[in-house]
Structure formats: C-alpha cells, structure tokens
C-alpha cells in the first residue's frame, strides 16, 4: 500500500501516530527485512514473531489509563509559521482512569520549561505565572524526560482541542529537545467528546463547557496548565456521567459504531458499561424515529397531503396603516428591543414588490447595501401567505450567508407570528440534505466494520474518524429541538459543521469530509412514503420541502 493508505491503517490501531514517526518505523522495519519500499509503496516481506518481552509492551487488558494534559505556550508572530511561532513554558497533567490505584500513585504532574531567551519570557501571560516560571524553570529536555517517566504505562493522552494545539505543540517541543515524540499511546481530543455528548452548546470554550456540565472552575486561574488539565479531566468525567444516563439502545449504537475510537474506548472504560446485543437497520431506524418524535408533528401527514400548508394569521403589530406588512415593523420585531432606523428606500421597495405580486407581474429590483432588502422581501412574502392558506413562497438566495440570515429573521419573527415557524423550511440541494435511510445504513455498516465484519453499503466505514463523525451527527440529529436546530441538523454541508469538526477530520484523515457527508445525503435516496419504515414520516426530501 502507499504511504497515505498505510497511515490510515496505522491510525486505526495507533490514532496519535504522526506521518514522520510512521516513516521512521517503516525505515526500521525495512532494515530488519520485514518490509520493502518501492516508488512510495510499502510491501510486507515477513511476519515478525512476538517475543514474551514484546508481549509485555502491548496494551494491558482492563481499565484504560489516561493522562489529561494541557500546555501553556508563548506565541510570537512569524512569517514561517501560520498562527505564530510557539514555545511551551508550562506543562500540566493529571491521571484519569477507573484504575484508582494507578491514579493515586502519582495523580498530577506540573513543570515549567526553559524558554530560549528573555524576549520569549516577556510573552508569558500574567505576573504570577512569570514569577513561578522564574522560580521553577528547568531545561525543556529535563522536563520532557521527567514527564515521559511520570507517564509510565499510560494508554492514552487526552487534551482539550489537542488535535489542533497541545498534541502537535508537545511533539514539536520533543523534537527541538532531541527526544522522540510521545507515541505509542492513544490520543483523545476532549473537545470532540464535548461536541458529541453536548452537540448544541452555544460555546465550546473550556470554561463554558465546564459551566454547562456543572463543573466548578477557578475562573481567575484558567490558562494555568495544571488547572486547565484538572478542568478538562472533570469535563471528561461529566461527559462520561452524561453518557451513563443514555438508554441501553443508544449506548449500544454509539459503543458499537465507536469501537476502535480512542475517545469512545475511553468513555467505555470509565463507565465500565459494556453494550449488550448488536444493531441492525430495523433497530437503528426505530431508535432514531423515537428520538425524532421530539421534533413535534411528522413532516409527512398520514394522508400524504403536502405538509406545511396552513392558515397564517399576522399580528396587528406587524401591519402598516394600509393593512400590509410593514418592513420597518418587521425590523423592530427582529431587533427585539434594539433601536431600528426608519428606511424610506425599504418602504418604497416593499410597496413596489407588493404591487408586482398583486398584478401577477415579474419584477426586478436593485437596491444598495443597507436598504433592508431581505425584510422588504419577507414583508411581501408574508402578505402573500396570509391571503390564502394554499400558497407557498420560495425565496432563493445567492449565498449561504444570506440564506442563514433570512432563516434567522424568520425564527425571530416566529416569536410574534404564531404558526410561522412550522410553515418554514431551509432547503438545500440533495447533496446537502441528510438521507435518513443512508444514515441508518452508514451506522449499521460502521458497527459491522468496527466489529471486524464486512460492510457493503458505505465504503468509508473502515475509517475510525468517519465513525466518530457518524456518532456526532446522529446524536446532533436526535437531540435537535426547535426548527432552527432541525434545519441545521438536517444539513450535510461542510459549511454547516462546527469549525473544530472540519479541522479535526482534515488533520486526522485528510480532505475527505465532503465525500463522507455526500455518502449520507439524499443523493443516495431516502425513505419513500408508504415504505413501512418508522422513519418514513420523518423523511423530508428536497422536493417535498
């Protein structure tokens, strides 16, 4: 196989391995005659015997032993390094495991690393941190050696946003010190766990996630490496406690799909909860349908009539003197108490649009930025809908940003316009809208592949990161509440995913996310009316929407 394929396979068993570290291992194996390389392709030559001593190096059975780490780094601008050049000056870590004896043996580690010169030292944040640095600083190679010794036989490294930050920074610091990277352990990004367990938080800053999870924090001492490591460990504990409260069918699905994932293996070890039974299309569809009942009424009526057609009554506070919707009053409603400027051009545009609609004529209108065009269009749309319950309005936008803005305006207006929220939908192309049928197939295939069995429908399920994305996606879909969240949860467009998740996939699996999302989109078809699936009433194709 080529180097990219080898890296993907290696990360199935060793998620933290870097391309550089793997290349060194290949060279070592080649020198022993175990593999040969030709034109970038690696081929096996022999099967190595595993001696008794090597057996002792393999991961022990029993509870996973994890180390939660955090680093504080000084940063200065650099033309050679995107985001600046970094040097770690503080490393903090705590042990986390169901093996209480191992944790108590050496629960915490903290050390301060020597920076290159006084200019770097001037970048340390806070007078207290600088004072401690000057009192306790040691050479970087000494600190990193001590950390590796303290790490001992740990199975996993955990860090909050470690994929984009701590893990790579630690590897770079080891390289500068002439030491090997901390490889041979699983790497768990606690930010991924937070996103998967609590998919609808307003903020995923560590302090905000901790507050949402009921974790006490010392706000004044955050950005201290040891304090942040402790808080991260508590956040992981809160996530584990949340997962422990999931129903057995949900845990069975997540644990089955997440087999081989460092994050979910850690959760399973900390909960000591083993899934019972397997998953199949029928059980997954029933589980998801039960969750989607929380959305409210099914999107497909039993009589198969088109959904979403109903009378809309407009409140008097939105109407102008002539009985039409006034765009300025819409702006006041959307602003929710903030001052709104009266815009004569917006009034003129709304009157012109209404006249064009009344006479059944096409129209083309151009207005400068700041006119308030979107609310003028919404005013004409609401007048049209309120006049006849059988009418529809389609507002097509040139950009996703404007589509999102209009969706936000509709949600704001729904606070004062009963029924508007249930009539509205955000529609994207088939490639950008989830197929519940394809999602079920992907989840079942992922569980099969994770269990070492052959999966035939979704070709990406062999990648553990794809399986992690599936877990995040199905939990986000199942816990969506309100139309705005449902609109977002139905989207399989890269731009609608959290930035962290996009960067996480890019770092660990490369530029494959768009292909992954397309595999669970409505390009792959969906449940049809009358199909008999419990998810059919909750299936909303692009055409139906």
TrEMBL record:
Keywords (alphabetical) are: ATP-binding, Exonuclease, Hydrolase, Nuclease, Nucleotide-binding
Q: Which residues form the Helicase ATP-binding domain?
A: 332-545
Q: Which GO terms describe its molecular function?
A: ATP binding; exonuclease activity; nucleic acid binding
Q: Where is this region: Disordered?
A: 525-545
InterPro entries attached to this UniProt entry: DEAD/DEAH_box_helicase_dom (IPR011545), Helic_SF1/SF2_ATP-bd_DinG/Rad3 (IPR014013), P-loop_NTPase (IPR027417), Ribonucl_H (IPR013520), RNaseH-like_sf (IPR012337), RNaseH_sf (IPR036397)
The UniProt entry, under Pfam families, shows: DEAD, RNase_T
Q: Which domain of life is it from?
A: Bacteria
Keyword Hydrolase assigned: yes
- Tell me what this protein is called: Exonuclease
């Amino acid at each position: 196989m080529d180097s990219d394929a080898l890296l993907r396979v290696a990360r199935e068993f060793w998620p933290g391995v870097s391309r550089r570290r793997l290349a060194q291992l290949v060279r070592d194996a080649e020198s022993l005659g175990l593999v040969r390389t030709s034109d970038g392709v690696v081929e096996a030559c022999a099967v190595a015997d595993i001696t008794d001593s090597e057996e002792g190096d393999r991961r022990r059975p029993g509870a996973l032993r994890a180390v939660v780490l955090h680093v504080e780094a000084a940063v200065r601008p650099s033309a050679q390094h995107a985001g600046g050049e970094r040097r770690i000056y503080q490393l903090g870590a705590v042990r986390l495991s169901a093996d209480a004896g191992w944790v108590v043996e050496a629960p915490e580690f903290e050390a301060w690393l020597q920076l290159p010169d006084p200019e770097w030292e001037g970048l340390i944040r806070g007078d207290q941190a600088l004072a401690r640095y000057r009192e306790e600083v040691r050479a970087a190679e000494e600190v990193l050696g001590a950390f590796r010794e303290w790490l001992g036989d740990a199975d996993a490294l955990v860090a909050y946003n470690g994929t984009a930050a701590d893990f790579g920074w630690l590897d770079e610091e080891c390289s500068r010190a002439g030491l090997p990277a901390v490889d041979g352990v699983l790497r768990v990004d606690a930010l991924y766990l937070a996103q998967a367990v609590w998919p609808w938080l307003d903020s995923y800053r560590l302090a905000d996630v901790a507050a949402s999870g009921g974790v006490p924090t010392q706000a004044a001492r955050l950005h201290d490496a040891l304090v942040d490591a402790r808080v991260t460990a508590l956040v992981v504990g809160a996530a584990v406690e949340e997962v422990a409260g999931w129903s057995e069918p949900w845990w069975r699905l997540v644990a089955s799909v997440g087999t081989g994932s460092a994050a979910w293996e850690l959760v399973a070890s900390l909960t000591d909860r083993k899934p019972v039974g397997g998953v199949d299309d029928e059980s997954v569809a029933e589980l998801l349908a039960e969750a989607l009942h929380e959305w409210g009424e099914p999107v497909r009526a039993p009589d198969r009539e088109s959904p979403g057609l109903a009378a809309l009554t407009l409140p008097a506070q939105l109407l102008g003197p002539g009985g039409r919707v006034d765009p300025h009053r819409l702006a006041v409603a959307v602003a929710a108490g903030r001052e709104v400027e009266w815009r004569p051009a917006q009034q003129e545009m709304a009157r012109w649009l209404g006249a064009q609609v009344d006479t059944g004529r096409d129209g083309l209108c151009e207005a400068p930025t700041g006119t308030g065009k979107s609310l003028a269009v919404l005013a004409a749309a609401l007048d049209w809908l309120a006049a006849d319950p059988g009418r529809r309005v389609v507002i097509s936008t040139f950009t996703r940003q404007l589509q999102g803005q209009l969706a936000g305006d509709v949600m704001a207006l729904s606070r004062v316009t009963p029924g508007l929220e249930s009539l509205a939908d955000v529609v994207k192309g088939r490639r950008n809208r989830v197929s519940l049928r394809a999602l079920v197939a992907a989840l079942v295939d992922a569980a099969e592949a994770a269990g070492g069995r052959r999966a035939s429908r979704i070709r990406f399920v062999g990648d553990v990161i794809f399986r992690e994305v599936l877990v995040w996606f199905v939990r986000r879909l199942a816990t969506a509440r309100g139309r705005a969240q449902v609109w977002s949860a139905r989207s399989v467009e890269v731009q609608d995913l959290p930035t962290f998740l996009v960067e996480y996939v890019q770092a660990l699996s490369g530029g494959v996310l768009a292909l992954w999302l397309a595999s669970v989109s409505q390009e792959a078809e969906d449940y049809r009316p009358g199909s008999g699936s419990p998810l059919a009433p909750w299936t909303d194709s692009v055409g139906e929407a």
